[in-house]
Design goal:
Two copies of one chain form a homodimer.
Chain A: E1 2-5, H1 12-16, H2 27-40, H3 42-53, H4 64-73, H5 76-94, E2 103-106, E3 109-117, E4 120-124, H6 133-146, E5 150-155, H7 165-174, E6 178-181, H8 184-193, E7 203-205, H9 210-221, E8 225-226, E9 234-239, H10 245-256, E10 263-268, H11 271-285, H12 291-299, E11 302-305, H13 309-319, E12 323-327, H14 331-335, E13 343-346, H15 352-357, E14 383-391, H16 393-409, H17 413-427
Parallel strand pairs in A: 1-11, 4-5, 4-7, 5-6, 7-8, 9-10, 9-12, 10-11, 12-13
Antiparallel strand pairs in A: 2-3, 3-14
Helix pairs in contact in A: 2-3, 2-8, 2-9, 3-8, 4-7, 5-6, 6-7, 8-9, 10-11, 10-12, 16-17
């Protein structure tokens, strides 16, 4: 790993640049799959599943028998761990549900907001080597708490037409309505348009490869909402001279093992810390099962010496990290000044893994500097807020003439008229 | 207007269909303008402003002298009306700011969310006949309350290089940082990339014609966020037999005067109401200054008899109206059951105009059935929420082994290791 000492601000850009993404334009293939699924429905899904997943399925829907078998196959220990995580995620997310608060903005003018569920949501969980059942908890639990009526999960089958049991177990536990053995672009297309067997949804959530994220972007143009734009995962750790180098290195590596394109940046205020952290990274990396992936990610990564705390904070906000670990003693100097980050982990005993699995916060977070303008997934993501207002006779009398004047100044006579008629009726 | 009596559910689709949009593909022209602005900066802006707005400007930024002159030219009456609206909008939106609420999800595990401003936002206000200064209040006031540091307004000049004084007055009143005389695709491109004179922003808000809304969609692909997808404005009114037909007709027309493609739907529980409302629409329409526009919009519109209240509610939720007026006595039967709508106006004295201008709620709302998954603009739109978490030694001990088990089951050994190292250090 490269160590950069006190980089001048004009060079920060080169340190905080994200790894360059492949610029493949997948639009043509994605549009073709969407059009076919829209026109042919299940027939197209069957063909694509055979072609891409090598599975010959006559029925995409996971049966109750398959779910029961999955549940039996999981260890009691793992089920208990999942139950603990579920409880914490429920506690944290249910605290975000807001009650209506009626505001009298002017005499007789009552206004309020109420949260309502998005009625139909789709969750996508990738297949592959790591069965991301934790992401089902992160997306399924808040959608259930929000009151979403239809919660549809798509996840690709293996060539035998099977889905990982931990995924099925987590899905039924959180209350997913329907699970379909569908992956890739065809799954996102099915959720967008609906087919004979798959219901369409209003918003699609979840991670995926470049085809899936491209498909979600395309779904957006077809009138469906998505959770957020996607990019490779990333972590910034700020370590002071008291931070244990082994802890810091383990956090950097837990991010690095996500994928070849993951990025980690470590900021410290002494060169001794950085040297010790680098040595720990090398030692721990050597024994990791996913060391190939972690090694490439570490190659994208930076060790940066920034001595001044306020400069560190500016550097954090410029990078806008998805995950930020503050392994420092003087955390209060930082917290109120962090403007751009997805999720912040404070102190020596708060690894990113805590939030990835079981502390209760959500792990679906904005990458690629999108933390400048997007929140991570929270209850807002599964709901929308409707405004309500009610004016009494006193209310229209108190603000009516202001409305008339403004409508007239905008040249909208019918807007004015709707008020004038009411005010006149009250004079009779 | 067509009256439809008790339509069967399978025909609701045909009544709630939005007017077909022009399917012009503007991508080529939009991409060309974006590329030129990205490469040539102010030079490209100058050329496009001359070409499209016929204004030859050497400087896009509105000067303090121009702002002062605008303020002098407005009537005291109108300024007072704007001040009243501003106050109500501030009261309603500031009540949406949330304080952090620390949740102890497990012993020693503290988690919370905090709101942070989006640091740089861009507001677009169209030119043309109706100077939409009310939209500046609706976008500028919450961005200021949120704490956005840079609030950049773009609005097209007339051929003399001037901007409507009400727009300038409202912009300085709410605290816009910089006002630029820029319109159309080039304005959105400038906000996306930044130029020598225009700063780039992280999120773009505001209405516009098909070029501007296309440009906002394109900006989204360039890494900028936008408020929401756009469509023609729409209103649904539910009237019971006690609703004054003149009030209902005035509300329908206030929506219809927005544009040729606006849509209004009126639902009533008696045929007598519908007949009376139609007669009032005809009478009021005849004397409107914008009757040409309102007449086309009324042609897109529907009068629908639905006698049963629960059926009416299902019809509302299927349409997902941007604006919903409930001009009924038994409002409580409706309110909790409304799931899909942007903003709801309750009772005989709450015209849509109230929320358009001065009640305090926001008038930037989801159209085109997007109310199924998007909120209108509120404080959430100008902020994002960061999650924070801090585990004590007790905290990592209480959830550590669950994290280890789950990480292992997902095949992520480094994630597990970050916890194991900490648990072991506590055993020493």
């Amino acid at each position: 790993m490269q160590i950069t000492k006190n980089p001048p601000r004009e060079n920060w850009n080169s340190l905080t640049d994200r790894p360059v993404k492949e610029a493949n334009d997948l639009t043509t293939i994605i549009k073709e799959v969407f059009d076919n699924v829209n026109e042919q429905g299940d027939k197209a899904l069957k063909e694509y599943t055979l072609k891409f997943d090598k599975a010959n399925l006559s029925n995409f829907k996971v049966s109750q028998d398959e779910i029961n078998a999955a549940s039996t196959s999981l260890s009691l220990e793992l089920k208990e761990a999942i139950a603990l995580a579920k409880n914490n995620i429920e506690v944290f997310h249910s605290a975000q549900l807001t009650q209506k608060k009626v505001i009298e903005t002017a005499p007789g003018v009552s206004c309020w907001q109420e949260m309502r569920p998005i009625e139909k949501v789709g969750l996508y969980i990738p297949g592959g080597t790591a069965p991301l059942f934790s992401t089902i908890l992160m997306l399924g639990i808040p959608s259930k708490l929000a009151g979403c009526k239809e919660i549809v999960l798509c996840t690709p089958p293996n060539a035998k037409g099977e889905v990982n049991p931990a995924i099925l177990y987590a899905a039924q536990l959180v209350g997913v309505t329907n699970i379909f053995k569908l992956g890739g672009v065809q799954a996102i297309a099915a959720l967008t348009y609906g087919t004979e067997s798959v219901p369409n949804v209003y918003k699609i959530f979840g991670p995926g490869n470049q085809f899936v994220t491209g498909a979600k972007q395309y779904a957006l143009t077809q009138g469906v909402a998505i959770d957020m734009p996607a990019g490779p995962s990333e972590l910034m750790v700020v370590a002071d001279q008291l931070a244990d180098p082994a802890f810091v290195a383990s956090d950097l590596l837990s991010q690095a093992e996500h994928g070849h394109d993951s990025q980690v940046i470590c900021v410290a205020n002494t060169i001794e810390s950085l040297v010790a952290i680098e040595a720990e990274v090398t030692a721990q990396l050597a024994v990791l099962p996913r060391r190939d992936m972690a090694t490439s990610a570490i190659a994208n990564s930076q060790l940066v010496l920034i001595e001044n705390t306020m400069d560190q904070i500016d550097f954090i906000n410029e990078y806008a990290p998805e995950h930020l670990i503050l392994n420092v003693q003087n955390e209060n100097l930082y917290l109120d000044r962090i403007v751009n980050s997805g999720s912040v982990f404070i102190g020596p005993y708060t690894p990113e893994s805590a939030g990835d699995y079981a502390s209760g916060t959500n792990h679906t977070l904005p990458t690629n500097a999108y933390a400048r303008m997007y929140s991570g997934v929270n209850m807002d993501a599964f709901t929308k807020k409707i405004t309500f207002q009610k004016l009494s006779k006193e209310g229209i009398e108190s603000i009516g003439s202001a409305i008339e004047l403004m409508a007239e100044a905008e040249g909208l006579q019918a807007h004015k008229n709707a008020v004038t008629l009411r005010l006149e009726s009250l004079k009779k």
